[in-house]
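Hi R.,

As promised on Friday, here is the backbone we talked about, encoded as structure tokens. Could you run it through your design pipeline when you get a chance and send me back a sequence?
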């Protein structure tokens, strides 16, 4: 049992506490902590690439009675993605001095990373709920950073909706525990598969409630209404970090539907996927239409994030190793591209470098070649043979609408004369350029990356 598994949770928590004790060193401590998290995450990814999944027992209490952390290839992938994104966002924060507006930005930033890391690593549904609450508290503080009536109003709506989701989560956990006597994910995988017919209705209800909670976190229609206002009103760097926040909902759906509620489980069968697919397709279309009709770049990007979640859930709903591999590739791409555009939107000026970065990233988000967005959508289309007549037109129409939306925004931003502004207050191009470079690397290395993701997907589905 390697103690390094707990480091992604423990390190941000310790750094956050030190920041509160030593506020004058908060920027330095945050940079050190985030860089350390990235290094640890990469090491864990390398470890899981050559070893079987590992379990960490807190207090050495055996499962399913103690708190369990579980490290596998999927968790390690999400850790590396989150840590890499956090490094780019923190670079932007320091360059723009966003952290000077309040005293506690960096502490909240580290607690956010702690919540994200814990959600990926936990092997227990109740602790998944706990880390979701850590995420909610920290994300609310980051979202209202800097104040303002519109931002506070959007933040209150965000908290209210997510608290309702938390209540549903607790109800679902109570039902699951009442039926099975456990909330350990690995233990649930065994017990749910062997439930007697009399208990299957209750576990089916609990599974649907869980999917509603995760759909709320992932901004699926009709539970997406909190996202446009939240992302559009949040500071650009915070919205960029939130690009991975909705992916936690997708991660939770993928984790639970492959481990606890696979399609061959008698209690649920294909029920969850039958609900998920139409919701995903509607989300994709409404997000693309919202981006086309939105006024202002932040709202366009918020609706683009909704459309990308619809595309991601469309792949997850296929419930096959090939579709899951495509979903993971698209998850990486959509996180990087969405965050890059949010960072660019912060005080964007009509400069040559800004225009190149904007249009390159926008093409990637829309799914046009040659970048990773095109490859990700192509993989999803290839994996969607069973529902090709329904999925293909929706994805292609959504891509076309997104292209129109970004073309309109680009023309407004770069072809409309604007007064000169102080270049020192323009968007720093380094962080979005770093994310774009990561997308280029994802495109160039698509072969080995998809091979690694295919192994990950097969392990999730229990396929050889």
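Update: got your reply. Pasting your designed sequence below so it's all in one thread:
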């Amino acid at each position: 049992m390697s103690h390094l598994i707990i480091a992604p949770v423990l390190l941000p928590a310790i750094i956050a506490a030190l920041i509160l004790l030593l506020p004058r060193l908060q920027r330095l401590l945050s940079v050190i902590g985030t860089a350390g998290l990235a290094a640890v995450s990469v090491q864990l990814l390398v470890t899981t690439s050559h070893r079987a999944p590992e379990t960490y027992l807190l207090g050495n209490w055996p499962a399913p009675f103690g708190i369990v952390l579980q490290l596998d290839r999927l968790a390690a992938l999400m850790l590396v993605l989150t840590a890499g994104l956090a490094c780019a966002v923190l670079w932007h924060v320091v360059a723009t001095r966003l952290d000077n507006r309040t005293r506690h930005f960096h502490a909240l930033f580290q607690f956010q990373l702690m919540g994200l890391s814990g959600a990926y690593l936990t092997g227990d549904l109740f602790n998944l709920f706990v880390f979701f609450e850590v995420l909610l508290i920290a994300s609310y503080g980051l979202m209202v950073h800097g104040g303002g009536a519109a931002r506070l109003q959007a933040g209150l709506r965000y908290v209210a909706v997510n608290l309702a989701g938390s209540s549903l989560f607790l109800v679902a956990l109570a039902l699951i525990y009442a039926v099975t006597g456990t909330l350990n994910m690995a233990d649930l995988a065994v017990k749910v598969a062997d439930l007697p017919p009399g208990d299957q209705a209750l576990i089916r209800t609990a599974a649907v409630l869980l999917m509603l909670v995760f759909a709320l976190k992932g901004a699926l229609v009709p539970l997406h209404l909190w996202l446009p206002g939240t992302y559009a009103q949040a500071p650009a760097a915070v919205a960029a970090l939130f690009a991975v926040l909705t992916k936690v909902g997708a991660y939770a759906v993928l984790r639970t539907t492959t481990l606890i509620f696979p399609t061959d489980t008698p209690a649920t069968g294909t029920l969850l996927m039958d609900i998920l697919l139409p919701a995903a397709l509607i989300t994709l279309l409404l997000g693309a239409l919202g981006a086309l009709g939105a006024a202002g770049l932040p709202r366009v990007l918020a609706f683009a994030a909704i459309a990308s979640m619809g595309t991601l859930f469309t792949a997850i709903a296929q419930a096959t190793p090939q579709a899951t591999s495509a979903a993971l590739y698209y998850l990486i791409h959509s996180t990087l591209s969405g965050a890059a555009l949010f960072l660019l939107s912060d005080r964007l000026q009509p400069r040559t470098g800004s225009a190149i970065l904007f249009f390159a990233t926008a093409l990637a988000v829309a799914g046009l070649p040659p970048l990773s967005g095109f490859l990700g959508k192509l993989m999803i289309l290839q994996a969607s043979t069973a529902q090709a007549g329904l999925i293909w037109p929706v994805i292609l129409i959504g891509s076309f609408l997104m292209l129109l939306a970004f073309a309109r925004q680009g023309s407004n931003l770069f072809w409309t004369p604007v007064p000169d502004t102080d270049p020192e207050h323009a968007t720093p191009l380094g962080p979005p350029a770093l994310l774009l470079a990561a997308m280029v690397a994802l495109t160039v290395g698509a072969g080995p990356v998809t091979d690694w993701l295919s192994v990950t997907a097969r392990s999730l589905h229990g396929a050889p």
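One thing I noticed while checking it: The chain is about 75% helix and 0% strand.

Thanks again,
M.
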